[in-house]
Amino acid sequence: MINHRNIKEALLIRRVEETFLQLFSKGRLNGTVHTCVGQEFSAVAFAGQLKKSDFIFSNHRCHGHYLSFTKDCYGLIAELMGKKTGTSGGVGSSQHLCNNNFFSNGIQGGIVPVAAGYALANKLQKNGNIGVVFIGDGTLGEGVLYETMNIISKWDIPLMIVCENNFYAQSTPQHVNLSGDILKRAEAFDIKTFKSNTWDVENIIKNAEQSIDYVRTSGKPCFHLVDTYRLNAHSKGDDDRDAEEIQKYRDKDFLIQFEKGDKETYAKYLVQINEKIDSVLSQVENDTELSINEYYSEIKDSETSDWSDVKYEDKRQVDLINQFFIDMMSKDEKTVFLGEDILSPYGGAFKVAKNLSFKYPERVFSTPISEGALAGISNGLALAGFKPYAEIMFGDFVTLVMDQIINHASKFHHMYNGKALCPVVLRTPMGGKRGYGPTHSQTMDKFLVGIDNITTVALNALINPIELYTAIHSEKHPVIVIENKVDYGRKSSSLRLKNFNIQRNAEKYPVIKISPYSSNPDITIVTYGGNAAWIIENLNKLIIETDRIPEVIVLTKIHPVDYTEIIRSVQNTKELYFVEEGSKYNGIGSEVIAGVVEKATFSIKAKRIGALPVPIPAVKSLEEIVLPGIDTLIQAIINK
Amino acid sequence: MTILQKITVPHESVNDQYLTVITLCFKSGDIVKKNDIILELETSKTLLTVEAQADGFISYFCDKGDEVAVNDLIAQITDEPYLHEELLVTTHENDKKSEIKSEKRTDVETIFSIKAMEIIAKEGIKKELFNEFDFVTETVVLDYLNPGRQRQKEKNEIASQHSPKGSARNDIFQNDEKISITKLSNAKKREIEYLSSVQEAGLVSTIYIDVNLGSFFELVNPQLEYFKESILPVVIYESSRLLLKYPLLNAFYANGEIAVYNNVNIGVAIDIDDGLKVVKIHSTNDLGLNSIENKLMELVEKYQDRKLETVDLIDVTFTITDLSSNGAYFFTPLINKNNSAILGIANSNDHTNNVILSLSFDHRVTEGKVATNFLFELKERLISYSLHKRDHDIRKVVCYKCMKPLNDDLGEIGFIKVVNAQGLDKFICDTCLFYH
Ligand SMILES: Cc1ncc(C[n+]2csc(CCOP(=O)(O)OP(=O)(O)O)c2C)c(N)n1
Questions:
Q1: pLDDT at residue B159, rounded to an integer
Q2: Regarding the domain delimited by B206-387, which CATH topology (the fold level of the hierarchy) does it fall under?
Q3: Which of A115, A145, A244, B376 could form a disulfide with A57, with the two C-beta atoms 3.0–4.6 Å apart?
Q4: Which of B103, B135, B139 to mutate to test the interface with A (most CBs of A within 10 A)?
Q5: How many structural domains are present in chain A?
Q6: Radius of gyration of chain B (CA)
Q7: What ipTM goes with this model?
């Protein structure tokens, strides 16, 4: 027996989506819509049977999942019509919905590790909640899916992957891009599998319930394959499928059959549903749209702030960072540490996690070599209110997490109109001068700045990392932390200078100012991160050889850059040198100099100093030439 | 303690914003009496003395040689002796910076740039002089050597923002071995400052002199191959020798310094239908009259064939422009870039055998007296050519007996050269010789 509540819910989904298509053809919807007409019972079976405290991550075809889980018809319609009252304020529209524990995103596969992280948060809290992540069969082509399946199985994460197999990926039929067997994929990871279809409604509802129970009671993941068919185009009008094939599935469609079998009940339900939709539509009509001020606010430069002498520490940077984590994990139970090879006694490639897994085994996760999943899981933990610190073993590997940084962490907050916070922290040791060669020495910083809503902090040898990490810990939005491999072994106490005042301002991510004791400086050097130490160590040499007296500004926050102090210094010297270890083209220096030029009311001379644009060679003699050092800087100043 | 007298720099003339301290008559802490002269200042025009108006203890806030600005407090007289150091900290302009620094550090060492060390070695300055500094660069040393430099530099910077001329210095100094640098005196700098406000574009004066050539050409023409009836080759020849004696006319002004050329390369302005060019006669003072003439001819031909090369046009140290053949009788030549003077040659308007020489010179480098002396000496030399024709100036030939000048002698014989009783060569008229 099929509960008529389920039939009404499926019909509501279908009518809402048909309404969207009508509105779209009338030009009332902006953008695109992917409808699940024909697939509704997958939504009803899974989303409809979860508890409110469970969660759902969905993809581009998410309206059904949303309605079944949240019952929020108004928020969905308003969202697609671009209204402020929409569930994502009209920012997200069709593919980017958020309502309590419901999230959808338009990146195929990317949501799977995020869902795993969210599920891991449930597991850590032992609250008995589980989650479902919906993917299409086309998404079986995404690598991060398999990274995540490996991990959820290994770590016993209570997450169900529902694969809605409609035999097409956009326009491509399955035989073109899928090899092997779908369920065997999951089985290979030792993940329990289930199989249903949307035509045997009674069965899918029962199966869904069973699989939900399985996950909840076992605390383990499962993979549920749902054969189904979408009766409409992929989005709108893009349908090249055989009409006969479509008709075959129309004939199998439960709602069409139900209408034929029980016209009266169907008509009654239809009227109720149409009335509901009409009444929502007539209200939504009058709703307003989000204003730019509600959506975006400009980041301002600091006012002049107090300056104080830098405090020197007689401890190595790496030990201070380690100390921060040891302390913070005890203070804040929401702190989670993830990374590759971080279990003690090894404690990570650079020993930042030393002893951490001994002390907090339940919150230190050594991941497989799966940077994408590592970052995605961290994002999910963060969305669920944890403070995850994800370590990317070498800075060079951040390329593998860019999707999680840019399409997930960066976007969540704004695209869900402020409903979600993702305070993830991604840390990575960066830079060369250790002879690790091309793929373990590059400075990738320029790829990690300018990302919306993400603060990028670069540690340096002058500021105690405990102070910086304490500030980072309280951030509500994502932070990328660039640590420097060479600085790990440095102590700030070794960087005292006789003839300079080394001061920092009172900002959360302080700007450091290294000014000649009494002379008026005639050039400004701006830098950050690992460069600070070697510049400081060689300042006297620089003056002796160049005949120029510098003021050095060290930024700890390289995005967004606080220009106040740079402008002050350059206003005096009119000559700016920006030093970075990455290659200078399109680099941090390019950005900072452009920013200074935009803000300055005077003209300046400027020069970028960075690595040569070649992969970093391992051989020492060449590495020294390719990476900027004091001689590069001196030559740049002399030849300005 | 009461301050009995505050001595500030007087505003003597609108033109003098800076004065130089010439003498400090006492030491700080000395007792002075009313009407004692306590210090002397130099303005652009005169020396100024400052007298004590009361008996008391003197404190100086300046040093001998300092450039002090109008209204600066430079000394004071008090009724009790005062610790000089204390006063310095609170009033000396250069120490203001150290007031701002909260904590005074003692471990600061002085670091010298290589360039700074080179100058220190060259000038034989003591490094210890810079003990107060954290870093000593070339600028610091140059500012020490020439305290006015900083202000001048700032002024130049301001000036260069308003006119594109300010950028000359770099290309000028590229060829350092060709020049040697002399510092401008403080008085000269004041003069520049003074004249700048009047005519910012250039501080140029011209002096004119009339030269009667007499029978100049009768003697010179036979020696000339191409430029007969032209005074130009001789003027070039003589000027090139004279310039060795007047180096400031063979020089130029650059950014507060005078660059004097070590060589004399006279440039001659030519303008025959193809635009004005100044062609160079290299090392003119080493060439004889004929070599000069040949070189000039070669350059004129190159000019006409449009074959002049860059080497023919650069490094001119002094310029001569001859407009006499163009019929000009009076003009003011304009000084070329990187020169301090230019000599003009024109006809006099009375169609006699006279020429007018004009010398325009850069006030920032030299002065009227020098230019006038140069012109007079040049004139003397030119005249001497015509005198060569006669062995003696007849006005100066006098009979040693009756003192009658040869000029007045109406007889046909003229005077007779004799040796007098003292063994000296003398002249005697026929009257005295034959009738007395
Ligand atoms: C990473 C990524 N690649 C490509 C796309 C473009 N795209 C959107 S939907 C889609 C097809 C997805 O097929 P499937 O996973 O089977 O889901 P279905 O559309 O069939 O529900 C594609 C390729 C995307 N959104 N994200």
A1: 43
A2: Chloramphenicol Acetyltransferase (3.30.559)
A3: A115
A4: B135
A5: 3
A6: 30
A7: 0.78
